[in-house]
Specification:
Structural class: mainly alpha
CATH class: Mainly Alpha
Distance between the termini: 40 Å
């Protein structure tokens, strides 16, 4: 299952979306009616599921499903294998 399919499955299972709701450039807030708490929950799930840290600035830039998919796909799981905690540890170790 690819990233987009996993995202769509999550949106169907937890947010009541249907397969017919999905289009390429659909907006998470406007088209899917996700409020800020829903979007935060989705992004936290993405961090855990795909092992990709998403900071608050980056999360504000992710407005469409395709942007979210591309963001996740462009992050190498090797680069951030342990999620945001390991990324922070690596950053602080490099300063020592």
């Amino acid at each position: 299952m690819n990233t987009l399919q996993k995202l769509q499955e999550r949106l169907i299972d937890y947010y009541g979306c249907t397969e017919s709701d999905f289009t390429g450039a659909m907006d998470l807030s406007d088209d899917l009616s996700l409020d800020s708490l829903d979007k935060t929950d989705l992004l936290m799930w993405c961090e855990k599921e795909f092992k990709v840290p998403i900071n608050s600035y980056e999360s504000e830039q992710l407005e469409t499903l395709v942007q979210l998919r591309d963001y996740i796909d462009n992050r190498s799981s090797d680069e951030v294998s342990g999620g945001w905690r390991d990324a922070i540890r690596k950053r602080f170790k490099s300063k020592e």
